[in-house]
Amino acid sequence: GFETRKMPVLMVLCEDDQTELSRRQLSINAWLEVNDVTGRGPGDLYIWPRVGEDNVLVTFPSQGEDKPGAFYGELVAAVEHVKEKTGADELLIILDTAADMFGGNENIRREVNTFIKTYCGSFCVRHNATVIVLAHPSVAGVASGTGMSGSTAWENSARARAYFSRDPDGDNAVRTLSRMKSNYSVSGKETDITLMWDEGVYQLPTTPDQ
Questions:
Q1: Which of the two residues, 185 and 127, has the higher pLDDT score?
Q2: Can you tell me whether residue 93 is helix, strand or coil?
Q3: Which end of the chain has less neighbouring CB within 10 Å, N or C?
Q4: Higher model confidence: residue 2 or residue 207?
Q5: Residue pair 57/69 in contact by the 8 Å Cβ criterion
Q6: Which of 163, 137, 61, 151 is CA-nearest to residue 103?
Q7: Cβ 112 vs Cβ 98: under 8 Å
Q8: 75 contact partners, CB below 8 Å, separation of at least 6
Q9: For residue 210, what pLDDT band results from cuts at 50, 70 and 90?
Q10: Are 28 and 41 a contacting pair, CB within 8 Å?
Q11: Residue 37 CA: distances (Å) to CA of 34, 92, 202
């Protein structure tokens, strides 16, 4: 129910190729009533498939010292290109997934902290961007319902964390989006949002008992 500011979106997707992403986007276009048969989406949505590429933003070659990956420079250039092309002051960047872009040990707090704050955070500071990093939970994280994996720095370094989970009762169409951490608003079960998978998109249930 809250208004959100519209801004260009750059999605860096490392798990699916262009054909699959276009197929998914066509379903989303239909739901948004966007007249586009190319599978590209709205004009200010930039989908960048990176499956099979070197997508590491940072590595830690020795004693925790960080070294930018080649892709970090490519991503900076892409962000600058999108902002220049759209003339927008703000930008949303979605990075999918952490496992593809983090070249360190997920259990070492310093390395995780550097990845989140120094590298992902650089886009917030230098480009006025909001960055969403997607990550898969561990088996323990799924079992506990926390969605965690690796060092607690994954949560502590970020300003907010959400967990998208399946229905524990086994309904494959139902998901829950839980606000696990939020530095600038409340969190907890009362903020959970129930969503349903229907015709290629996640939607709010149309009736209270659905």
A1: 127
A2: strand
A3: N
A4: 2
A5: yes
A6: 61
A7: no
A8: 12, 57, 123
A9: very low
A10: yes
A11: 9, 24, 20
pLDDT tens, 80-120?
999 999 999 999 999 999 999 999 999 999 999 999 999 99
DSSP E strands: which ranges in 19-118? 45-49, 58-62, 65-68, 91-96, 102-103
Chain segment 18-61, per-residue pLDDT in tens: 999 999 999 999 988 888 888 888 889 999 999 999 999 999 99
Question: CA–CA distance from 103 to each of 116, 139, 146 (Å)?
Answer: 12, 21, 24
Q: Please, how many CA atoms are within 13 Å of residue 146, restricted to the half-sphere of its CB?
A: 12
List Cα–Cα distances, 109 to 73, 75, 114, 149, 155, in angstroms: 24, 24, 9, 12, 11
Residue whose structure tokens are 């830690």:
60
pTM: 0.91
Token readout for 208 is 């209270």
Q: What is the 3-state secondary structure (H, E, C) of 141-206?
A: HHHHCCCCCCCCHHHHCCCEEEEEEECCCCCCCEEEEEEEEECCCCCCHHHCEEEEEECCEEECCC
Task: Map residue 70 onto helix, strand or coil.
Answer: helix
Q: How many residues are present in the chain?
A: 210
